[in-house]
Design brief:
Oligomer: single chain
CATH topology of the largest domain: Multidrug-efflux Transporter 1 Regulator Bmrr, Chain A
CATH class of the largest domain: Alpha Beta
Number of domains: 2
Structural class: alpha+beta
Order of helices and strands: HHHHHHHHEEHEEEEHEE
Shape: globular
Largest sheet: 8 strands, antiparallel
Helix content: 25-40%
Number of strands: 8
Strand content: 15-25%
Strand order of the largest sheet: 1-6-8-7-3-4-2-5
Radius of gyration: 21 Å
Distance between the termini: 24 Å
CATH architecture of the largest domain: Alpha-Beta Barrel
């Protein structure tokens, strides 16, 4: 059974237990995975963390009963494994941006906010956009100055606000390289909650000195990286990451020692909404 089939099996376990207190740890144990590995694999294949998928599916399935029956909200919450009506309401609002009582009163909901079960056919929609075959490259140390932030992956993937903040403050960053070189890094800790990740949007500098207090300096280490090229819209890069981690890497002997990866936006990057835009993805690796 390959990784995709294992994740499909775990999704079936989840679907069969939406009206229980089934935890992500329970599912990972049933499949024989470590908690961390299962969360990373699930996220790389589906685009959702297991926790956010379970939560969204519980809320989605509860909506019909909320609208079509007179069941009390507390009873509905308990039926779907929430410990209280408050916990249910918080989860409901996070996903649907309304309280359960509002939706019941209105008798309708924006169906685009609901999450239907992920099936094998759904996986076929996750098409990658690799522009060329990956390369193994060695990069020298790269010095960066930028803005780090903690990001809730279940809330979407629009980083426009942070990029705008960086570009508006380029003039206060000393020693910026010319022409401009922009980077976006994702990094995490081994035991980190997979619903969130640290992001870092930055510009390359010649040397690190006189860093404005509002900004942070980081250094990308000199080492060997797998280099991938994503061609297309910025909001489709997740499909490319899924292909890399779920299809390409499992078929190789490469080892990934780092808890980070990054993207580089060079002269072929034409903006987030241009289908001909090319960005480069770098993933640290060890020799085979």
């Amino acid at each position: 059974m390959n990784n995709r089939e294992l994740i499909l099996s775990s999704i079936q376990i989840i679907e069969n237990n939406l009206k229980s207190k089934l935890s992500v740890l329970d599912v990972s144990k049933e499949l024989g995975f470590s908690f961390y590995y299962y969360c990373r694999l699930f996220k790389s294949i589906t685009g959702y963390s297991p926790k956010s998928y379970i939560l969204a599916r519980k809320i989605t399935e509860s909506v019909a009963e909320l609208i079509e029956t007179d069941m009390r909200i507390i009873d509905l919450a308990l039926e779907y494994g929430f410990g209280s009506s408050e916990a249910y309401t918080r989860a409901f609002y996070k996903i649907l941006h309304k309280n359960p009582s509002e939706v019941r009163k209105e008798g309708t909901i924006n169906r685009q906010l609901l999450l239907q079960p992920i099936t094998e056919n759904k996986f076929k929609e996750f098409e990658h956009a690799l522009d060329k075959e990956p390369e193994v490259v060695f990069l020298d140390e790269i010095k960066l100055v930028g803005i780090p932030f903690y990001y809730d992956l279940s809330m979407g993937n629009d980083l426009t606000e942070h990029w705008s903040l960086l570009t508006q403050n380029l003039s206060v960053i000393p020693n910026v390289k010319e022409p401009l070189e922009f980077y976006q890094m994702q990094f995490w800790f081994p035991d980190q909650d997979n619903d969130s990740i640290y992001f870092y949007v930055a510009v390359a500098v010649e040397k690190l000195e006189f860093i404005p207090i509002q900004l942070t300096a980081k250094t990308i280490p000199a080492q060997t990286y797998l280099k991938f090229r994503h061609k297309g819209l910025a909001n489709q890069v997740g499909h490319t990451y899924r292909y890399i981690y779920e299809e390409w890497l499992p078929a190789t002997a490469y080892k990934l020692p780092g808890n980070f990866n990054f993207e580089y936006y060079g002269d072929q990057y034409l903006g987030p909404y241009n289908e001909n835009s090319v960005s480069e993805i770098y993933i640290p690796t060890e020799n085979k």
